[in-house]
C-alpha cells in the first residue's frame, strides 16, 4: 500500500529517534570500552570517544593479575553457578509439588509462600537470622537466602500447568513414578521457562553487591561487583590498585595505568560476561515468559 506523506514523516522521525536513543544508550558503554583499551596516562588528557587513542592491554593485564580481583572474580563465578543451579532445583521442585492436585492444603501453602513476597521483615531481623545460622561472613550467605523466590516459582508452576495431563497419565501407565515424571518428562518440556528463570537468577546474583555490603566483612569473600562499586565510589581504592599494578609490573610513567583506566577495565570485566550469556538464552526468553505468564 502506498503510504501517505504524514506516515512517511512519522516513520522517518521514529527511526531517527530510535537511532538517537540507541546511541545515547550504547555510547557510555563504548566510551568505557575505549578507555579500558587506552593507555592510562593518555586517557587523563580526555577526548576519548568510542575508539582508543593509544591502544594497550596493560589495563586488563593488571586487573586480571591483581590478587584481590582474581579472588573476587572466582567468588562471583562460583556464586552465579552454584546459586543458579540450586535455585532452579529448589524452585522447580516447589512449583512441581504445587501443581499436584492431590497435595493437601495446596492453596493454603501458596498463600503462605506469597505473604513474605509482599511483607518484608526488614534488615535487622534478617541479619539476626543469618547470624543465628552462622551465615555472616560465609560464602553461603550469597546462596541460601535467595534460593527460593515466589515469583519465579509462580512462573514455573504456571508453565507446568500448561503441560497436558495425558502425558503424566501415559507415563504412569508405563510404570513411571512421580520423581521420574518430574525429571524425565516435565523438566525437558520446561526448558524454555527454566532457561528464563536461570537468566534472571544469574543476572541477579552477578550484579548483586548489597549482600556483601550488609553481611560480609571478610575481604576474601568480596565478589567482583562489590569491588567494582568501591572502585567507582572510592577513587583512592582505584588509585591504590593502579599504583600496585605499576609497582608489580615495573611500567614506566608514560604507560602506567591510572584509576580511570583500571575502573574502566574492571567495569568491562564485570559487564561483558553476563552480556555474552544472554544471546544463548534469548531464544528461550520470550517463550518462557509468555508460556509461564500467571494464569489464575
Task: Characterise the protein shown here.
There is one protein chain. By secondary structure, the chain is mainly α. It has one domain (60-291): Orthogonal Bundle (MetI-like fold). 72% of the residues lie in helices and 0% in strands. It has 14 helices and no strands. The longest helix has 33 residues, at 259-291. It is globular.
| Amount of helix | over 70%
Q: Biggest β-sheet: count, sense, barrel?
A: none
What is the H level of CATH, i.e. the homologous superfamily? MetI-like
Separate helix tally: 14
Number of domains: 1
Q: Would you tell me which CATH topology applies?
A: MetI-like fold
Cα shape:
globular
Low-confidence stretches: 292-296
In short:
By secondary structure, this protein is mainly α.
Secondary structure topology:
Elements: H1 5-36, H2 40-43, H3 58-65, H4 67-98, H5 106-118, H6 123-132, H7 150-161, H8 165-173, H9 178-189, H10 191-207, H11 210-215, H12 224-233, H13 235-249, H14 259-291
Helix pairs in contact: 1-14, 3-14, 4-7, 4-10, 10-14, 12-13, 12-14, 13-14
Identify the notable features of this structure and list them briefly.
296 residues, mainly alpha, MetI-like fold, 14 helices, globular, disordered C terminus
Amino acid at each position: 500500500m502506498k503510504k501517505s506523506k504524514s506516515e512517511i514523516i512519522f516513520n522517518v522521525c521514529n527511526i531517527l529517534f530510535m537511532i538517537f536513543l540507541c546511541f545515547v544508550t550504547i555510547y557510555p558503554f563504548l566510551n568505557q570500552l575505549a578507555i579500558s583499551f587506552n593507555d592510562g596516562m593518555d586517557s587523563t588528557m580526555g577526548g576519548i570517544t568510542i575508539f582508543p587513542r593509544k591502544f594497550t592491554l596493560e589495563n586488563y593485564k593488571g586487573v586480571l593479575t591483581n590478587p584481590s580481583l582474581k579472588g573476587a572474580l572466582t567468588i562471583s563465578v562460583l556464586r552465579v553457578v552454584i546459586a543458579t543451579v540450586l535455585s532452579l532445583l529448589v524452585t522447580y521442585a516447589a512449583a512441581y509439588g504445587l501443581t499436584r492436585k492431590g497435595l493437601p492444603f495446596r492453596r493454603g501453602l501458596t498463600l503462605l509462600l506469597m505473604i513474605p513476597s509482599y511483607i518484608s521483615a526488614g534488615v535487622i531481623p534478617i541479619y539476626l537470622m543469618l547470624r543465628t545460622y552462622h551465615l555472616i561472613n560465609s560464602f553461603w550467605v550469597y546462596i541460601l537466602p535467595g534460593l527460593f523466590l515466589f515469583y519465579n516459582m509462580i512462573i514455573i508452576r504456571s508453565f507446568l500447568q500448561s503441560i497436558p495431563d495425558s502425558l503424566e497419565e501415559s507415563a504412569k501407565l508405563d510404570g513411571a513414578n512421580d520423581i521420574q515424571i518430574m525429571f524425565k518428562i516435565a523438566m525437558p518440556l520446561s526448558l524454555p521457562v527454566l532457561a528464563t528463570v536461570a537468566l534472571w537468577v544469574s543476572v541477579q546474583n552477578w550484579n548483586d553487591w548489597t549482600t556483601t555490603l550488609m553481611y560480609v566483612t571478610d575481604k576474601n569473600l568480596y565478589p567482583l561487583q562489590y569491588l567494582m562499586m568501591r572502585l567507582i565510589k572510592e577513587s583512592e581504592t582505584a588509585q591504590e590498585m593502579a599504583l600496585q599494578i605499576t609497582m608489580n609490573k615495573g611500567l614506566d610513567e608514560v604507560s602506567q595505568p591510572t584509576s580511570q583506566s583500571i575502573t574502566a577495565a574492571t567495569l568491562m570485566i564485570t559487564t561483558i560476561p553476563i552480556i555474552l550469556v544472554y544471546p544463548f538464552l534469548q531464544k528461550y526468553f520470550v517463550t518462557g515468559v509468555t508460556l509461564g505468564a500467571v494464569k489464575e
